[in-house]
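#lab-general

N.A. 3:47 PM
ok so I finally got the sequence cleaned up, no stray characters, all 345 residues accounted for. can someone with queue access submit it? mine expired

B.Y. 3:52 PM
send it over

N.A. 3:53 PM
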Amino acid sequence: MELGSTISAILSAYGLDAEQFSIHRINSGHINYTFKVEPGYVLQRINKNVFLDPLILAKNLQRASAELKRKAPDYLFLNVIQSLKGEDLVFDEEGYPWRLFPYIEDTVTINEVDNSRQAFAAAKAFGRLSRLLSESKINEFKETIPRFHDLTLRYEHFEHALEKASAERIEKSHDLCLGYKRFSYLVTKYQELIASNHMQLRITHNDTKINNVLFKKNTDEVVCVIDLDTLMPGYFIYDLGDMVRTFVSPASEEETDVTKIEVRSAIYQSILDGYLSEMKDVLSPEEQAAIPLAGLMMTFMIGLRFLTDYLNEDVYYQTAYLDQNLNRAANQFYLLEKLASHTNL
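B.Y. 4:20 PM
back already:
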């Protein structure tokens, strides 16, 4: 089915006529397709090849919404709009699940952090979400992507990809692969942290990029956290680490000029200050001692995933040109080296 007709069919399931709206894609995320349906809505197609059981995703959001209504009735949690049949998800003819959200007026997303105020506000927002859900019954939530941030698993995937990769891709990525192997000590540190039993599973966002919060237009005030596909059990280092990874440099993970990548100390500190303003009393002393490792581990892991996908012939992440995943992996490796120097680890 052609995408335009698919969208029309999906909207009709909500009692909406596509011809009455202006529809355009509003981001270029790696996984899902998201569309602005003007006026009033955001429509998203979930990647069924990533989220193998999207009903888990829907149930997690239902449970989180119920917990937040109980704990903080005024908290703005972006719930889906139900279809005419009362369903959270509508499936198209190819089996892709779609969902519809209300569009919140006078809000914007940003792709790079410009200042410390933005970093503090976003980190505080992600921290608040985790704090409010910190007493949730973990066993009532399921992993939407099993072992999503398991560093041990991601390193195993990297090693397997190396064994099966084409000679051409091995040659082109040779130096970068050696570089990532130098940081394999982070896998051991991760394993030690988990084995210590000092790390507590909580409900975490697991994808804490700056464009996953909505800001009030023309301000640095956060309206709400969005993109909750990976809201599921996890460790705090996942959320904090991904903020460090994606906030501290003025260059995005798509930048091919690595000289533009740096660790902005003021932004780094603002992330910690914002997150800990909500989570300091929730985290144990042992967890707080692991804070310096968070950014390193997540940068290492995401870089490994880009490199692994490159070795696997680009089967996971969307790419626009031939060596994009290789360039992404090189970008993250350069940031990893900068963070290691910054944290002295």
